[in-house]
Structures are given as C-alpha cells and as structure tokens.
Amino acid sequence: MKKKVYSKKYLEKLRILKKNKELKEKIKKDPVIFSKFLLNFDPHEAQQQIMRDTHKFITVVAGRKFGKTKCMAAYALFYALTNPKHRILVVAPSYSQASIMFREMYNFIRRSIINKYVSKILKTPFPQIYFKNDAEIHARSTQNPDLLRGEEANLIIMDEAAYIKDDVVTNVLEPMLLVTNGRWIKISTPAGHNHFYDTFLKGLSEEFPEYSSYHFTSTANPYVSEDFIELKKKELGENSIAFRTEYLAEFVEDHNAVFRWSDIQKNVADIELIDGAEHISRSYVIGVDLAKYQDYTVICVLDATEKPYRLVHFERFNRRPYAEVIERVKDLHRRFNGAKVLIDSTGVGDPILEELQASIGAEGYVFTSKSKVQLIQKLQAVMENGEIKYPYIEPLVKELQFFEYQLTRTGVKMEARQGMHDDCVIALALAVWAAEQYSGSAGGEIYLGYSFL
Ligand SMILES: Nc1ncnc2c1ncn2[C@@H]1O[C@H](COP(=O)(O)OP(=O)(O)O)[C@@H](O)[C@H]1O
Ligand SMILES: [Mg+2]
C-alpha cells in the first residue's frame, strides 16, 4: 500500500470517533455512517436508501452519473468488514467496467484507516482484496462466464447489470448463491426487457417480499451539475429514447430500434482484442468509418476466415490529421495479413480514400440513403443469425442499441438517434459487408462494382 494520504477533514472525523464508543457501534451496523467516518464518503440521500436496504435481492435502476459504482464500492467494503469469511463478487459486463469498481474500492482503502484491516490486494489474474477477517472481494467481468463457473459467493454486486446477459445471470451467477443462501444487488441504467427489468418488477410487487427495487434519475445525485444534465437534454432531445433511458432511467420500449437488444447481447463474446494477425492463414477484413465533422473515426477488424466472424481489433478516435489516419489504416492492413479495407465514401473527392485506394487497394462504399439501408440490413441479418461475435465494447454496444429506423416521405432512413453517434455501427457494418464479399457469400447487391476475389 502506498503512503497514506489522509485529509484534514478525515483526521478530524477519526478524532471524534476515538472518543465516541456509541458511534463506533453505529459504524459497525450502518453502512452510511461507516462510509462517512471511515471512507470519508458522504452518500447522498438516494445512495443512503440503497446502502441501508437489507433485502435479499435488490434492483436499482438509476441514470448515468447517479453514483452507482461509487456507492456499491463503499457498500462492498462495509459488507466485507462486517461479514468475516464472506466472499463478495463484484461483476460487470466488461473488464474495464469491473476495474472501475475495483479502482473505487482501492482508492477508498488507500485513503482510509480501514487499510489496517486489509491483508492483501492482488491485481492479477484479476482484482482481489483480502481482509484480515478472512472476507474477500473479487472483481470480475462476465465476458467469459466459464471462468466464473463453480465459484461461490455470499454477495454478488452486478454493476451495469442490465448489460450482463440473462443466461449468465441465471446459469452462472445465481447458482453461486445457492449454497451460501446469499444475496445480490443489481445496479444499472436500463437496457431492454431482460433479467434486470424482470427483477425490477418483482421488487415493485408485494408478491415477492425478498425483492426490493429502486428507481432514480441522474439528478438524484446532487453532485452532478444541472448544466450537465441540461446539456445532455439539449444534445439528445428531452423526449428522446436515449435521454429517457440514460438519464431518466426509464425502461422505454424502443419500437424504432434497428437491432433487437436480444440480438445485440447474444453476439457479445469473450474475445481478446489483438494488434495483428494471429496466424498467416487467417483472413481479415477492415471496415473504416472516417470522421467527418465532429464525430469519430472508427476502425473495425474482423476475422472473416469462417463464420461467426469475430471482431478482433477496434479503434475509435477523433481529431487526428489525415496523414496519421492514412498511416494507421495502412499499418493495420499490413499487420492483418494484407486485409481488405472498405471505407465509407461520399462518392466524390475523398482524399483519404483516394490515397488508400492507390496504396493498398482499399475500396469505397458509396453512401446513399438506399445503399446505407442495404449495408445496415446486412449487419442486421448477420447479427440475427449469430454470425458475428464481438467483445463488450461500450461505445459499440450503446450505438447498436440506439441505432434507429425512421420512416420518411421517400422511404426508410436508418441512423443514430439525435445526439448519438453511429460511427461504430457503420464501421462494423462495412467490415461485415467486406467479409461477406470476401467469403463469396454476398447477398448480391452490387453497389461497388468490385470483387474481392
Ligand atoms: N455521494 C457522493 N458524493 C460526492 N460525489 C459523488 C457521490 N456519489 C457519486 N459521486 C460522483 O459522481 C460521479 C458519478 O459517480 P459514479 O459512481 O461513477 O456514477 P455511475 O456509476 O452511476 O455512472 C463521480 O464523479 C463520483 O465521484
Ligand atoms: Mg458506473
């Protein structure tokens, strides 16, 4: 553990604590008082309600920035210190999300005298905290459920629970609690009508006394500035599905979604992203959506050797000079066995595309409202059929979730909802389009007048 960094305010609290026996007792019973005095963290009203709830199964639907991760980190520490020998599992849909939770816990410990009660902290093979009372906290991702199978836990905290797949919850996580008769807490922004929605409803119904549920908007966190929420409201549109889902935390039925939530989820797989070809025999394709004005350049590399295609490399960046973007694509083309590259094109004078056509034989996919629909429908079909796998990459999953149909006078339009990006979706769709051409199973729509073979 690094040098202690106690603040003045914190030391003052410890002084009060030393003299007050009654307070000491309260700290052991109440996670809120524990957090205030020992972690120097003052949970806001809504966080207090959740932390003090002792139901067996708790579902918390809350908007972005509510303070979900932070209050669960504090609660996990309270639970560990007050439950000797208990095993706490903190899970999230991705490694990066699980490590955010771990970092919150780690920072709490580092700045608190509770580090006296910690015996060791391991970062590999996955984050673990061991306490002197033999309690343990393990932070894990649910990306590879096989690595979790067979473990036991007394408490499971699921951060961004709505993004964890239903079958992982039922077949892997819930069984861990059987022997221990343990508890779980799910906390998340909403996403679709899945396990998270089901248990949320259970918690509202009197028929299920072991369940409890909460619903909070982002503004329940007094530390989130009103300006920020106003800005998001403007960007996304007050009545938009994105704003209502992400900040008002409503379970909005999305009739205009292009990709069904169940399709988005079923194709999430435990794939380790790589920087170059795994083997000379593998065939790769690269889809590139170039940044136009404000948005991002996204590059998706698919292993298209066989179906299901696998997303093995992903990049998303903005504000880079042309020359750098060109070098990046050339480099990936080289490192992935001379992969075919398909780039979005307006059809006229694209300097990046022209350069990449000349140097590495990249192709352009000309966007018209019709060709865009065809491109997206291809991705849709491949996803429905389970013919593509990708790791849980947050911007990609969110963009797929909020990609929508719009009926216009002249037909159907498909695009990101107001205020959202669609670069990840387009890059992935371009890669899939290229993969379909490359493997000779293309749908026959001839837009480009080229053949990959
Ligand atoms: N009780 C609190 N006091 C002060 N800041 C808080 C509190 N709860 C959350 N925050 C801050 O609010 C922001 C969002 O918290 P976070 O836990 O990441 O939210 P979420 O997981 O819901 O998106 C972070 O900057 C966090 O430090
Ligand atoms: Mg969070």
Fold and architecture overview:
This protein is an alpha/beta fold. The chain has helices spanning 8-19, 21-29, 31-39, 45-52, 68-82, 95-110, 166-173, 195-204, 226-236, 241-246, 261-266, 322-335, 351-360, 369-384, 394-401, 423-438, and strands spanning 57-62, 87-92, 118-122, 128-131, 136-141, 155-159, 183-188, 211-216, 284-289, 297-303, 309-317, 340-345, 363-366, 388-389, 403-408, 411-416. α3 (31-39) packs across α5, α12 (322-335) packs parallel to α13 (351-360) and α14 packs across α16. The protein is elongated. The termini are far apart. The structure holds adenosine-5'-diphosphate and magnesium ion.
What's a quick, concise take on this entry?
With 453 residues, the protein is an alpha/beta fold. Helices cover 38% and strands 20% of the residues.
State the CATH superfamily name of the largest domain: P-loop containing nucleotide triphosphate hydrolases
Relative strand content: 15-25%
Q: How many domain modules?
A: 2
How many runs of DSSP E, i.e. beta strands? 16
Q: Name the ligand types.
A: adenosine-5'-diphosphate, magnesium ion
Give the oligomeric state.
single chain
Average pLDDT, to the nearest integer?
90
The amount of helix comes to 25-40%
User: What is the rounded Rg?
Assistant: 25 Å
* CATH overall fold name of the largest domain: Rossmann fold
Estimated structural class? alpha/beta
- Give the strand line-up of the largest sheet: 3-4-5-2-6-7-1-8
Tell me, what is the CATH class of the largest domain? Alpha Beta
The dominant shape is: elongated
DSSP summary: helix tally: 16
What's the CATH architecture name of the largest domain?
3-Layer(aba) Sandwich
Question: N-to-C terminal Cα separation, in Å?
Answer: 58 Å
- Largest beta sheet, briefly? 8 strands, mixed
The stretches of 5 or more residues where confidence is low (pLDDT under 50) are 440-453
